[in-house]
Write a structure and sequence with these properties.
Layout lengths: L7 E5 L7 H9 L9 E6 L1 H10 L12 E4 L14 H19 L5 E4 L4 H6 L7 H8 L6 E6 L2 E5 L6 H7 L2 H19 L5 E4 L14 H15 L4 E5 L4 H6 L5 E4 L2 H12 L4 E5 L4 E5 L16 H22 L1
Helix pairs in contact: 1-2, 1-11, 7-8
Length: 327
């Protein structure tokens, strides 16, 4: 693949009925972005230009020159703030196009604005979200959702399960497999060996069995098995303190045992700066740490911090991988 000195990040527009076009436009208004990457917007160019004009951002001016890969599939009118088949199908097609561009060597990474799970379903796509969709498009069998928020990196054992089902999902094999996978994937992304901490499930990580048995029966045996295999992993740690320790840099990553254990910590410590990273894909993929925000779409008040952070992190991870491969 012929590569430019700077990574080329493909930025998908997301659901046009949500805040995707707005946060993409706002993020790319940052002139400092050009110092870390080139950007290719993948989406409906007319919608992006209209949104940028409404925000007085001057998209396409000499000061703000952005490349487009136009996917003009929103010719019919759509209602902002409402799930619809037309916008759901369009947002899915942006993702398909981005993966195709990556395969052709035209982009190095993908950074995605938010999509609506309901809308892509209405549009004929049977995926729970970006993660599963991208895994299918790249024939990836083992993958995991993670969040990067400054020095805090969290990898999730389970995602969209009820709390009861998430607890039932926890077993020695799944946890040890995730620790092993996270060690390999994060070491590859960051270009170095990593240290991993595992959160407990119960209050105070069960206080030696006082508040539950999962730590003794499942979590500790999984950690010990991974340590035997040479992985730098410790725990379980009390879940009410481990994420703050990760945020301060005591560990490279924390394994969270269910969805909200991870996301409450990430969004409380670093809302707006957090980035969703899919581990295990053959390409770097980052995304915002929030949804389509239909309730504020079209009002011009959306915060683009997470979109900006996602694009920057995508560029950084590509460079880390390049540097590691050159050693």
């Amino acid at each position: 693949m012929d590569r430019s000195p700077l990574p080329v990040v493909g930025v998908t527009m997301g659901d046009a009925a949500g805040i995707g076009p707005e946060i993409v436009s706002k993020a790319l208004a940052d002139a400092n972005l050009a110092a870390v990457c080139s950007v290719l917007i993948i989406g409906d160019e007319a919608v992006l230009r209209s949104t940028a004009a409404s925000l007085a951002l001057g998209l396409g001016s000499d000061q703000f020159a952005i490349a487009f890969f136009d996917v003009p599939n929103l010719g019919e009118k759509f209602e902002v703030g409402v799930d619809a088949a037309v916008t759901g199908k369009a947002s899915a097609q942006y993702i398909e196009t981005a993966v195709g561009l990556w395969r052709e060597g035209k982009i190095d990474a993908i950074s995605t604005a938010p999509i609506s799970k309901k809308a892509i379903s209405l549009g004929g796509y049977g995926f729970a979200g970006h993660t599963e969709f991208l895994a299918d498009l790249t024939q990836t069998e083992q993958f995991a959702m993670s969040f990067f928020a400054n020095q805090l990196r969290v990898v999730l054992l389970s995602t969209h399960l009820s709390l009861v089902d998430a607890i039932g999902f926890l077993n020695i094999e799944r946890l040890s497999n995730l620790i092993t996978f996270a060690d390999s994937a994060l070491s590859k992304l960051l270009g170095r060996r990593v240290s991993i901490a595992v959160a407990g499930l119960n209050p105070h990580a069960s206080e030696g069995g006082m508040f539950g048995s999962e730590e003794q029966q499942i979590i500790i045996p999984a950690i010990e098995a991974c340590r035997t295999n040479g992985i730098d992993v410790t725990g379980p740690y009390s879940p009410d303190t481990i994420f703050l320790r990760g945020y301060k840099g005591d560990f490279d990553a924390v394994i969270a045992l269910y969805h909200d254990q991870a996301t409450i910590a990430v969004k409380s410590l670093s809302f707006g700066a957090g980035v969703n990273v899919t581990l295990g894909l053959p390409l770097v993929r980052t995304s915002v740490d929030h949804g389509t925000a239909f309730d504020i779409a079209g009002r011009g008040v959306a915060d683009a911090s997470s979109m900006s952070a996602a694009i920057r992190l995508a560029a950084e991870l590509v460079m880390s991988s390049r540097n590691a491969n050159s050693i």
